[in-house]
Amino acid sequence: MLGEHVRLSSSLAILSHSFCNIGVTGTFDARQAQMFQEGVWKIRVYEQQLEHATPEWLESNRLSLVSTVDAIATEIQNRKGILS
Length: 84
Known about the structure:
Elements: H1 2-7, H2 22-25, H3 30-50, H4 55-80
């Protein structure tokens, strides 16, 4: 997903609600705060690596993402009995 943000030159990305659901967490203790900071740091490092990705890699990543989303959508539709 982050590869698509780089390919599209997006400056913002919305993280999953499960990344940090402050409504459920309420407050952070020191360990949780450190884990959160490390998680954000890992995303930033990966984002910097993606800045150097070739156009071919970004296109391959895009196609993989499309395929994955299609497979998930098909699975959900099948479970709900929806014909595509």
